[in-house]
Write a structure and sequence with these properties.
The chain is α+β, with helices and mostly antiparallel strands and 86 residues long. It is built from 3 helices and 3 strands; from the N terminus they run αβααββ. It has helices spanning 3-11, 33-41, 53-62; strands at residues 17-23, 66-71, 78-84. Strands 1-3-2 form a 3-stranded antiparallel sheet, covered by helices on one side. It is globular, with a radius of gyration of 14 Å.
């Protein structure tokens, strides 16, 4: 469970919308993981979490949202989601 997504849910009123456009490098850019880790270790990059778009969708659902729309562009490196708090 992702605390940030749960925090967003807590801030929304019932019926409110959570809209996300998120890069999901776990799908096709997984090979970037060692470079991102190394950049973090030497202080050149922020912490980057690696997950697939399916993992993100599941995290949003697990936080208690209802997915109204999900769209993955042909590149498969990101996902656009509209979710509603019931």
């Amino acid at each position: 469970r992702r605390p940030a997504i749960a925090n967003v849910r807590n801030l929304l009123k019932s019926g409110g919308y959570f809209i996300s456009s998120t890069a999901c490098i776990g799908n096709k850019l997984w090979y970037m993981a060692p470079f991102l880790w190394a950049g973090r270790v030497i202080g050149r990059l922020p912490l980057v979490r690696i997950f697939t778009y399916r993992q993100l969708i599941n995290s949003i659902r697990d936080a208690g949202f209802e997915i109204e729309l999900e769209w993955v562009p042909e590149s498969g490196n990101s996902v656009f989601v509209i979710a509603r708090k019931p």
